[in-house]
Design brief:
alpha+beta
Length: about 250
């Protein structure tokens, strides 16, 4: 299958990304040092935290914002490259975002299911993932929009085989595209925004925490700090939502 034609278009929108976290938070040192040493190590941590404690307190939110940027954009550092839909994990990093919260949540549900399936569900236990959702502003003149390409290029939404998308991602990175607008593989009408260059991301803010519970029967419960972030889905629903539309055959894996 020949790759789709890549042409640069401007893009400006709010995008959402969620990542692993720990909630409720734990003391940083609770499993690495006895409590009597926490004070000393806390002082050492403050000295290396990236926060300038000599500056007035009202400067702290701006310093935290810089740390948020580091946290959310860490995927672009070589040591954090991971294999995913649009990257083989060895050549470049990809920041996976979405244009709406629900698409971001459902993509995370599928990721959690795949992780739990290999590590926990076989033991008849529930896998729980703590997640943290951020929203950011994405803006660039080097975007590519393939939202109308899923019928001509169904590989964009293939449930398991990411080889086409990884080749596409490599081409975009090589040709210096900043981001891609592409159909979600887990939600009908969902829009995913894989970003290949951190310059396209700005104004990152934390939105809320949520939890994903993946059960042995493959049902998935989501709970969080918003009324709509409390729902149940299943791996079967997320596996291939396009199957009923006849766009992509339901290839078992």
């Amino acid at each position: 299958m020949s790759p789709p034609k890549l042409s640069a278009v401007p893009y400006e929108n709010t995008v959402y990304r969620n990542i692993f976290t720990c909630s409720p938070s734990q003391h940083l040192l609770d499993d690495v040092a006895p409590e009597k040493d926490w004070g000393f190590i806390d002082r050492l941590t403050q000295a290396t935290s990236g926060i300038d404690h000599s500056r007035p307190q009202h400067h702290r939110p701006f310093q935290y914002a810089e740390i948020y940027d580091e946290l959310v954009l860490a995927v672009f550092r070589r040591e954090n490259w991971r294999q995913g839909r649009f990257s083989d994990g060895s050549s470049f990093g990809v920041w996976y975002g979405a244009e709406d919260e629900m698409t971001s949540l459902l993509e995370a549900c599928w990721t959690s299911f795949r992780f739990g399936k290999d590590n926990v569900l076989t033991k008849n236990e529930t896998y729980t993932a703590d997640r943290r959702l951020f929203r950011a502003q994405a803006s660039t003149d080097r975007a590519c929009d393939l939202m109308d390409s899923k019928k001509d290029h169904p590989e964009l939404i293939h449930p398991y085989d990411y080889s086409f998308c990884q080749e596409l991602g490599a081409a975009m990175a090589k040709e210096k595209f900043h981001l891609l607008r592409t159909p979600s593989a887990r939600r009908l009408d969902g829009v995913c925004v894989p970003v290949f260059d951190p310059k396209a991301i700005d104004d990152v803010v934390h939105d809320y925490f949520f939890k994903i519970h993946v059960n042995p029967d493959h049902s998935i419960n989501v709970s969080g700090g918003r009324p709509y972030v409390n729902f149940t889905t299943s791996a079967e629903e997320l596996e291939n939502p396009y199957n009923l539309l006849g766009i992509m055959p339901n290839n078992s894996h």
